[in-house]
């Protein structure tokens, strides 16, 4: 069954009239004006999408509901497979390099930069969507582009923020959350002394481990590479960051060196730690469980403290949506993406994600989810404030490979656990990074 632009627009308008998400901010505008691209699915097309396992079930439900609407509108069946966060990256890389498997993937950070020649060019659609929706947020867009072309579609930033127990903070002697890294260390010492410690992942956690490690580095003025891509990790600023991490680690609950993305959620909700960093998902996990009422009522969120660098610098988990070049149905895949980014569908997904997924396009910043709950506030500007992991150099195969190999995460883990001295850990990271950055 084929579909043209007129039918796609008519179907979408009907869905809006039938009561699909109809918020107060001009839904349907983007695809009702301008020269929208036309993608006619191939005869007999079907698609398979590999995506990450959800931490907010309603997010996945909204995505699947939009997918069902697409199938009803086009006749194109879309199979959605989900894998753990840690497994998406290797499975996507295998599919790209072998040339078989899923047609599309929701991947992490600059993963598409590792195999740009294995992906369908989405420049026409990416350019149109940006122009029709107030522009892409620069940080998210940079992950999806190579040499000025869209090799993927920017999908979302998953905001990361400090989550803590208010009563435990006060018991540790603080009336308000410290705004700088020095005060933050003192708070963590106080929490430990009271038997209510903090905990941050030093394990190979795709999201939380990378978010924490990059904040440690950047907040002290360190960076993996300079503007030209030359490795500059071996610096006084990095040494200061590592030494700070060593002191902070001393206040943590034991075992954080093996934590992955699920562990800090579980530890916080189990009452094992009083402070960690996470997406808004940990809040909603507590809300749906009556047994968590005491923790829920005591839970607060705040952005990461500011370090010696003097400004807020954070890495937020970022996801992109790519189409593999081996797909037999590239037009169907483009039609699917176009449909999912239509204003009513995109807003329904953002709403369903309950502040977990921050919009990639500026037109969706007025989604009411961001003001629906004060707990959402630290997550609301994730797309606007994120710094790409390849800072300060260009994104590409080197930045993607360095992150995928956990070079920065391992540097901190080696030092805080005493496996290496701070200087040795930095030298090891420098050596490993230079394998990817050859300038």
UniProtKB/TrEMBL annotation:
<keyword id="KW-0574">Periplasm</keyword>
<dbReference type="Pfam" id="PF13416">
    <property type="entry name" value="SBP_bac_8"/>
</dbReference>
<comment type="similarity">
    <text>Belongs to the bacterial solute-binding protein 1 family.</text>
</comment>
<keyword id="KW-0732">Signal</keyword>
<protein>
    <submittedName>
        <fullName>ABC transporter substrate-binding protein</fullName>
    </submittedName>
</protein>
<dbReference type="InterPro" id="IPR006311">
    <property type="entry name" value="TAT_signal"/>
</dbReference>
<keyword id="KW-0813">Transport</keyword>
<dbReference type="InterPro" id="IPR006059">
    <property type="entry name" value="SBP"/>
</dbReference>
<dbReference type="GO" id="GO:0042597">
    <property type="term" value="C:periplasmic space"/>
</dbReference>
<dbReference type="InterPro" id="IPR050490">
    <property type="entry name" value="Bact_solute-bd_prot1"/>
</dbReference>
<feature type="signal peptide">
    <location>
        <begin position="1"/>
        <end position="22"/>
    </location>
</feature>
């Amino acid at each position: 069954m084929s579909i043209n632009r007129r039918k796609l627009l008519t179907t979408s308008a009907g869905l809006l009239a039938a009561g699909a998400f109809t918020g107060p901010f001009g839904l349907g505008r983007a695809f009702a004006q301008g020269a929208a691209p036309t993608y006619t699915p191939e005869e007999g097309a079907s698609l398979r999408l590999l995506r990450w396992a959800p931490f907010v079930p309603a997010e996945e439900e909204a995505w699947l509901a939009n997918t069902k609407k697409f199938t009803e509108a086009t006749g194109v069946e879309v199979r959605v497979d989900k894998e753990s966060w840690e497994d998406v990256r290797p499975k996507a890389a295998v599919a790209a390099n072998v040339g078989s498997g899923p047609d599309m993937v929701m991947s992490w950070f600059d993963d598409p930069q590792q195999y740009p020649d294995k992906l369908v060019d989405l420049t026409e659609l990416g350019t149109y969507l940006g122009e029709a929706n107030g522009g892409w947020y620069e940080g998210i867009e940079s992950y999806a582009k190579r040499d000025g072309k869209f090799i993927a579609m920017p999908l979302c930033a998953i905001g990361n923020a400090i989550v803590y127990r208010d009563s435990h903070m006060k018991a540790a002697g603080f009336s308000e959350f410290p705004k700088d890294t020095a005060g933050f260390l003192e708070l963590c010492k106080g929490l430990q002394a009271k038997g209510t410690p903090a905990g941050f992942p030093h394990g190979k956690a795709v999201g939380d481990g990378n978010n924490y490690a990059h904040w440690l580095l950047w907040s002290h003025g360190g960076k993996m590479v300079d503007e030209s891509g030359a490795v500059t990790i071996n610096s006084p600023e990095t040494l200061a960051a590592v030494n700070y991490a060593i002191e902070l680690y001393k206040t943590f609950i034991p075992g954080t060196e093996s934590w992955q993305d699920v562990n800090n959620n579980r530890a916080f909700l189990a009452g094992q730690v009083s402070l960690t960093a996470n997406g808004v998902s940990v809040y909603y996990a507590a809300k749906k469980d009556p047994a968590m009422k005491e923790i829920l009522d005591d839970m607060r969120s705040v952005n990461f403290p500011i370090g010696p660098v003097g400004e807020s610098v954070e890495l937020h988990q970022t996801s992109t949506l790519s189409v593999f070049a081996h797909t037999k149905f590239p037009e169907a895949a483009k039609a699917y993406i176009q449909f999912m980014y239509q204003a009513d569908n995109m807003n329904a997904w953002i709403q369903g994600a309950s502040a977990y997924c921050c919009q990639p396009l500026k037109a969706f910043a007025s989604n009411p989810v961001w003001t629906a709950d004060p707990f959402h506030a630290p997550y609301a500007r994730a797309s606007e404030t994120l710094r790409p992991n390849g800072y300060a150099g260009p994104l590409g195969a080197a930045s993607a490979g360095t992150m995928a190999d956990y070079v920065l995460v391992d540097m901190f883990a080696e030092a805080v656990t005493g496996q290496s001295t701070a200087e040795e850990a930095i030298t090891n990271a420098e050596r490993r990074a230079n394998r990817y950055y050859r300038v």
